[in-house]
Amino acid sequence: MRLAVATTLLALYCTLQHANPLKLPAPTQQIIITKSAISSGVTPSSLPPNLLVHSLDEPYSHVHLIVQNKKKKFTQRQLDELSLELAVTLDDTIPNDKSVLITASNIDPNNKPIDPKSIIKKARTKHLKTHSLDTPMNTLPWPSSSPFSLSACKIVEHASIDKSPTDDDTSEIVSIDGLVCSSLRSSLLDLLSPSDVEKREKKIDSIFWKKGAYDDVAGEDGKGYGLNDEMMIALNSDNVEPSAITELGRRVKGYLEDVNDGCPIRLTKLPSSVFGPHVAPLGGNAPTHSDGSTFDWHIDGDPSLTPPGAFRDYYGLYNNRVGGDKPRFVSALVYLNEDWKEEWEGGTEFLDLPSEETYKTRVKPGRVVLLDSDITHRVTTPNKLAGEDRPRYSIVLKLLIRKERKTKKSEDNVVVLARKTPDDKYIGSAKA
């Protein structure tokens, strides 16, 4: 790889060294080009690394690059050509190789060197903020006057599934009662179907729901009932977040901080910069028995599969639950019916890919299911005991979560979804 980079640089240097050098104005803006500058959050690897300078709103007209121990003046256009070739070469480098491939310094009018690492740090911070990659949810501090108490929470089941073939990493599913009380459950359901309570329990209101609008697999036509466009826009508005969503986020945050021994947890609603605007952080489900077996296996999100874009430029591709500053992709699912009998079924089914063994949650009004977003799962329909048209309502909040207090060991910085107990379940490959 280094040989390929050196060959690229040498060829470009030989091509450009005959260019007429222009007088270099003072002050001179010079940059450091490294792998981390290109693929770790400053700018997409498909764009020139000199955007690092543009991102700081610091214009320049000429740049000094040290090539094979020789300093050469390049115009901005020549630098663009050089950096584009370099970016293409770097696309195939080893992810952990952050060695400096081209070095330079930032020189101020008094000819005093400035640490180039500070330039990259500043650019990364701006990138993070610009694309809302780490913006916390609108969760207020846990109020002592709140009628809700964490002591009301009860973990019904904690399951591990889909073990990695290379390490001990497994995905988690946690079912929790008491986290969402009856009033919050009702308020959340009002967001999805603000109609007569008795009416919505028996049949979907077509004013708010549309057949075929639920697309559990990106790029494919929906098969079940999903919220119509107007409802989805209102639910995911950046201007005014529904108070019930704020309260849900606040309670999830409080629960996670409790099971992580009081460590502050950062909750970020899935930004559009991760998968694009077509993947919203909030959505609703309303399967009915009449839907039949129409729902496909899918995942909510996986940081190892993010497309090129702002999120991937900053964090790179990584496995969920690696810890450090890389957020864990987690979904919070809440079952919302006022009345639901367990024998009606309609739970969420999860698939252990290595063994093809499955696990299904049980539906209960107000029950919260926290799950790793990279688990393969699907919606299941209620059975005929529920009736043909009775919907099983649920809301899904897709989150990025991380600890705000770091330790030296990366694995200690992984947010846990529940404490381990002897009653935990291990599904399929997780049994090994």
Q: Could you walk me through the main structural features you see in this protein, from its secondary elements to its overall organization?
A:
This protein folds into 2 domains: 2-130, no CATH class; 150-431, Sandwich (Jelly Rolls), CATH 2.60.120. It is 25% helix and 22% strand. It has helices spanning 2-16, 35-39, 51-55, 76-90, 116-130, 182-192, 197-202, 229-235, 243-259, 272-275, 310-315, and strands spanning 33-34, 62-67, 70-75, 100-102, 106-107, 113-114, 154-161, 171-177, 209-214, 224-227, 265-269, 282-285, 328-335, 348-352, 357-360, 368-372, 376-379, 394-403, 425-426. Strands 7, 8, 11, 12, 13, 16, 18 and 19 form an 8-stranded mixed β-sheet that branches. A 3-stranded antiparallel β-sheet has the order 15-14-17, with no helix packed on it. A two-stranded antiparallel ribbon has the order 1-4. Helix 1 (2-16) runs antiparallel to helix 4 and helix 6 (182-192) crosses helix 9. Residues 277-403 form the Fe2OG dioxygenase domain. Keywords: Iron, Metal-binding, Oxidoreductase, Signal. One of its GO terms (molecular function) is oxidoreductase activity. Belongs to the iron/ascorbate-dependent oxidoreductase family.
